[in-house]
Amino acid sequence: MKKIVSLLIILVLFTSCEENISSNSPSFQASKDNFMWRANDYTAVYNPLDSTLVMTAFKGLEVVKLYSYPVIINGTGASTFFENAIFELGNDDVNSAFYSFADRGVNFEYETGVSDVPNGEIVLENTINQKPGTISGKFRFDAPYVGASESAPERINFQNGVFYEIPITIGVNQ
User: Fold this and answer.
1) Which helix (H) or strand (E) covers residue 32, if one does?
2) How far, in Å, CA of 134 to CA of 164, rounded?
3) pLDDT average, residue stretch 15-25
4) Which domain of life is it from (predicted)?
5) Which of 35, 23, 5 is nearest to 156 (CA)?
């Protein structure tokens, strides 16, 4: 009887052990005002007519958009990759970041292209095992509120942002 109980305990121990591995590929995440922010959905649209790239990330009623220009492509067909590049944000509205969220029916908007002081960057980087047709890199930005509500936070800050293997769609940016 003791052998059967011991065997059952060992059997339960081995069956209850499992390895949970979750993949973060693709992903879009950052530290927003010192709290983890991770997108539920994301898109990357490249417009070959004007060499612009717009990455959009969604989390509930929150939206982040990163605009980059000029984005250069290396290669053709299945081996196409984006050239590594750094885009400084805040000098113009071409390379910029945008954030918005809705709260109680009010939409709050923040953007980097409204000031002459650089306040962020988007870095496109091909990783060693970069999948063709995807984009990876880093971003950070500090953006002022651009609306009229007095209840809105004055600024929004994204740090340590990472986007990894976001699939690219070729088309016209919105």
Assistant:
1) strand 27-32
2) 8
3) 52
4) Bacteria
5) 35
- Pick the more confident residue, 122 or 75: 122
Chain segment 95-140, per-residue pLDDT in tens: 999 999 998 888 999 999 776 676 899 999 987 788 888 899 999 9
User: What's the token pair of residue 10?
Assistant: 């060992």
> Could you tell me if 92 and 120 are in contact, meaning their C-beta atoms sit under 8 angstroms apart?
no
Domain ranges of the chain: 25-170
- d(Cα 12, Cα 82) in Å, to the nearest integer? 51
Task: List C-alpha distances in Å: 131 to 26, 78, 81, 111, 122.
Answer: 11, 9, 9, 30, 20
- pLDDT computed for residue 4 by the predictor: 63
